[in-house]
UniProtKB/TrEMBL annotation:
It catalyses: Exonucleolytic cleavage in the 3'- to 5'-direction to yield nucleoside 5'-phosphates. SMART domains: EXOIII (SM00479), SAP (SM00513). One of its GO terms (biological process) is rRNA processing. It comes from Acanthochromis polyacanthus (spiny chromis). Residues 121-307 form the Exonuclease domain. This is 3'-5' exoribonuclease 1. Its EC number is 3.1.13.1. GO terms for cellular component: cytoplasm; nucleolus. Residues 40-51 have a biased composition (Polar residues).
Length: 341
């Protein structure tokens, strides 16, 4: 549903969920992953600003050499290292730089491997919601599909999925456009439970996997709309509080753009897949299939050396950026939704 989400009125995103005043101002989103020459945590440098260790000169020289390589030379070198050779030239350059940097830092500081090991799991969510071909500015989008795809960041595998359809309350009749776009039929939503009941089963699913208790995890989405728009509106419609475990998330579009250094126009789902040398698998605008493909992008980014980190959050009904300097933390243990007073 990613392209259709682009058409949603931006001013609706910042709808207030309570009468509380905004306590913090949004900070511009800074880089999530350090530049090639910067020192990651636990590196041989004494501080984040001290790059005097000789390893950084070696990395800088290697980066310069990689920058001068042709696409075919990059592909040959990646093949020699038994790394993925798919993707456009800039993606292959980033992959080779990340590999070399990690190897050098492992030799020097005995660091771990190139994958994200702060979160044990990343949970990908991509809602489908009621829609019309030309959504009026006051249209209330109701969630009609709740999918989740669970990534193990240590094994770099999709290990589990969840999917349920949801019965809309305000506009129970789906538009022909919505049915054609999502593949979700009127019968599917008529036979589904209302959102609060589905959310309870989502919470139970997360709890059964000990996320937020035994294992650290984070939510990941394709853009800000799923949490700041769809879940925000749905909780108001269903008269329940916004769930704490969904108040912070990884916006993969920001992570992708910062890591591969590409503009926002190149961060749509279809474009990200194409640039990484991947093809969409499944039915576009199926929430579960979209989530699986977003998960494939996340896995490729982890393999390429990106450390995915929470970069957006909700506060008092407002969408805010999370600066990369913010303390690292996982999502809290999920609990059953509470009713709003």
């Amino acid at each position: 549903m990613d392209e259709h989400k682009e058409n949603i009125q931006a001013e609706d995103v910042n709808v207030k969920m309570s009468n509380s005043k905004e306590e913090e101002k949004a900070k511009p989103c800074s880089r999530l992953c350090p530049p090639e020459e910067s020192a990651p945590q636990g590196s041989p440098s004494q501080s984040n600003s001290d790059f005097s260790h000789p390893v950084y000169k070696e990395i800088a020289l290697a980066n310069g050499h990689i920058n001068r390589m042709s696409k075919e030379e990059l592909r040959i070198k990646l093949a020699e290292l038994k790394l993925d050779t798919r993707g456009v030239k800039d993606v292959m350059k980033k992959r080779l730089k990340s590999h070399y940097k990690k190897q050098k830092l492992m030799q020097t500081a005995a660091e771990g491997g190139p994958t994200d090991t702060y979160y044990d799991y990343i949970c990908v969510v991509d809602f489908e919601a009621t829609c019309e071909e030309d959504n009026p500015s006051d249209f209330l989008h109701e969630i009609i599909e709740f999918p989740m795809v669970l990534i193990n960041t240590h094994t770099l595998e999709i290990v589990d999925t969840f999917q349920e359809y949801v019965k809309p309350e305000v506009n129970p009749q789906l538009s022909d456009f919505c049915v054609k776009l999502t593949g979700i039929t009127q019968r599917m939503v008529d036979e589904a439970d209302p959102f609060p009941a589905v959310l309870q089963r989502v919470v139970a699913w997360l709890q059964e996997r000990e996320l937020g208790t035994k294992y650290k995890y984070a939510i990941l989405t394709d853009g800000a709309w799923d949490m700041s728009k769809f879940l925000n509106i749905q909780c108001r419609i269903s008269r329940i509080r916004y769930p704490q475990f969904a108040k912070k998330w990884i916006n993969i579009r920001k992570s992708y753009g910062n890591f591969y250094k590409v503009p926002r126009t190149q961060t749509k789902l279809s474009t990200m897949l194409e640039k990484l040398g991947l093809k969409y698998e499944g039915r576009p605008h199926s929430g579960l299939d979209d989530s699986r493909n977003i998960a494939r992008i996340a896995l490729r980014m982890l393999q390429d050396g990106c450390q995915l980190r929470v970069n957006e959050r909700m506060h008092a009904g407002q969408l805010l950026s999370v600066p990369s300097s913010a303390p690292m933390e996982g999502a809290p243990a999920p609990h059953n939704p509470r009713s709003r007073n």
